[in-house]
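Entry — protein

Goal — C-alpha cells:
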Amino acid sequence: MIIKSLSKNLIFKDIKIKKIITTLEQLSRVKSNLFFMGEGGTGKRTLALLYHNLIWKENDESFYHINSGNIDKEIGYSILFGHVKGAFTGAVEDKKGILDSAKTIYLSSVELLPPNLQSPLLNLLETGEYIPLGSEKKSIFRGAIIISTTIKDFSKLKNSISESLFYYLNSKLILIPPLRERKDEIIPLANLKLKELNKRFNKRKRFSEDFLSFLKQYEFKGNIRELFNMVEKSFIESKDNDLLKFSGELNSFFSEEEFIKENVKNLLSFEELKKKYFLEIFRLTGGNRTKMSQILGITRKSVYNHLKKYGLLKENGKN
C-alpha cells in the first residue's frame, strides 16, 4: 500500500499497519479524536500527519505537533487556549492560542502533560469547547486532536494522568506495533531513506546484499528512527563508494541511549562531540557551506565561523 500524502510518499506493507490506515480513513470522515500508543520511533507522528491530510486534504501548515513535556505549566494554558486582555500581569491585549489557527493538534507524550491542563484538555476532547484565559465566553475547536504516548503498558499510564482522561483515551486507543513486528516494511523504509539521502547529496548509492540481509534479521529496538539512523550512518561511512555495506559489527549501530553511553565511556566532552559531528558533515558535503548549513540547521556565517575555528579554511578564505 503506497499512500501519497501531501507531505511525502508513505509505504505500508505490514497487514497490521494497513488495518490501522483503513481505520484512519474511516475515522477521518467524522474527524474523530485519536489516541496512539506505541514505542518511540514507530511512526506515530507520521500517522498523525497522514490523518491530518486525510481529513483536510491540504498542506501541513495547520498541523501542530506539541510535545507535552515541553509545555510550561504556568503559561501552557495561554499558549494552547489563548487569553484576553487583563487576564494576567503583562496581558496588554487579547491573544489567540494555538487552537485558533490549528486544524489538527498532535499532542505527544501525554504522560508528561502538566496536571493543571488535563481537565481543560478532557473538556476539549469531549465537547470541542474551550475558554481562553480570563474570558467567560466559550470558543469552539472544529478540528481533530491526536494524542500519543510511548508508555508500553496502558495500565501504567493511569499513574501519570487523571482517571477521567485515562478512561477517555482508552476508548480511542490505537496500538502502533514496533518495527520488529513489521518485517515487511524494513527494506521499503530503508530504500525510502536511501532515496532521500541520494537526492540530498546528489549520489547514486545502493545497498549491498549483505547489508540488506542484515537489515532483515536485525531487531530494531529503536524502531524506524534507529533504522533511518543506521542507513544514514552507513551512507556517511561508505564515503565515495556506491555500495552501502554492513561492517559485521552489531555494536556499530546505536539506539539513542546506547549512543550516549558509548560517548560517555569514551569521555568525549560536548565540545569534542560537536567538533566530531561538524567534521563528519564537512567531509560528507565536500565542504559545501550551503549543504552544511541546511544539515546543521545553522546560518552560512556560523558555518564559516566553525570552519575558521577548526582550521578548515584555505588561505584564500574559501574551503
User: Anything to note?
Assistant: The chain has 13 helices and eleven strands. The longest strand covers residues 144-149. The domain at 2-177 is CATH 3.40.50.300 (Rossmann fold).
